[in-house]
Design a protein that fits this description.
- The structure is a single chain.
- This protein is mainly beta and 69 residues long.
- The protein has one domain.
- The chain has strands at residues 10-15, 18-28, 31-34, 37-40, 47-52, 58-61, 67-68.
Amino acid sequence: MAKTLKPGDKVSWNTSQGETHGTVEKNVTGTERVKGHVAKASKDDPQYKVKSAKSGKEAIHRPDELKKK
């Protein structure tokens, strides 16, 4: 079962520069574009838009890539 996150949850994820911390901005259940990347999510396979606490940049991640803080 996939983990359920909601907007406002504090999370961390791994990047090539190391672990990054941020906040879930919204649940994505459709097609959405961020920084040229197109996320194709669905209600059965949701993804999450997150905002980095350090850089303020947004990204979309699958639930298994995020760790709730």
